[in-house]
Amino acid sequence: MGVATLYIKPAFEAKPLAPLPGLGHEVPMHEPLPRLRRSVLYVPASNEKALMKSASLPCDAVIYDLEDAVGPEEKTAARERLRGFLTGPSRPRCEVVVRINPLLSEWGTEDLLATRAARPDAILLPKVDGPRDVLDADAALDETDAPRSIRLWVMIETARAVLNVGAIAELGRDPAARLSCLVAGTNDLAKETRVADRQNLKPWLMQVVLAARAGNVTALDGVSNDFRDLNAFGHECAEARAMGFDGKTLIHPAQIGPANSVFSPTANEIAEAEAIVAEFAKPENRHRGVIAMKGRMVERLHLEQAEALIKKASKIEEKGE
Ligand code: COA
Ligand code: MG
Asked: What are phi and psi of 122, to 5 degrees?
């Protein structure tokens, strides 16, 4: 069947949402131990040199871009180059994501087919407006018998996507859906809304974080265009971490180190987490809901946070950092 015919199929009928369990905390996570996504580098698929370089970079994930970073005349060649690269020996070992062109654009269907054949960890959908766009991509992947291991990431970069971000993220709670990550697209969002600076984008960025938490998916901040100013970039990463983002999308290899550093637990945070775990493990505290440590109230929710932080730190250590 031609894939071009797939998109007229009503996706909500094709894939009804599974009933949600009664309690929020029982909702299964797609990835029980969330993957590290501190530093996620865009690499234009049209740039051979950047493709080759990407294999040796210490970022947690790479987004190979067929969309904004590739001009209309280069689209077909870039798609073929990327397919060869991802099925060849130089494919990186980190999480591999491919940003395709919108499915309804002239390149979208071919992008989806070529990308699916290269078996990335995820496909990133640009210019998504609502949950329907995600379900359509999901249904199109199912039609090609794509393995369920291929996840979907979505750009939140249109005004409609921001307004619908809660409904989009809700798909993350459907065990049958592929949604795994929301990526803030700050350049497109600023263009469409005419918002002039990051300060004024922040309320919408917080909506992205909130929705991601509600849907149990990862939230990534947008890019910093000024890739030579690493000092400003470090501040922006720290701000993004404080806002609740899991990581930052990047445009240049020089941004990887600062992002990895800012989104990793510090030695002090690890020591504090270990102290909380040790305190709750004491026989006298084992059944208590709340304890006092150094004049501070520590509850079991802090224990859960501490355990998550320790797991993250050990994942980073496994990576050899
Ligand atoms: N991924 C992999 N390698 C990259 C890279 C990237 N995103 N950006 C730069 N490099 C490489 C260069 O090829 C160069 O490699 P070399 O050391 O082997 O010569 C090295 O890093 C240094 O690059 P530099 O000269 O500092 O930058 P540049 O002028 O070549 O490129 C940009 C600057 C902004 C054009 C480039 O970084 C880029 O294309 N970034 C991604 C843009 C993108 O994908 N945008 C869409 C999403 S927002
Ligand atoms: Mg964009």
From this structure: -155, 160
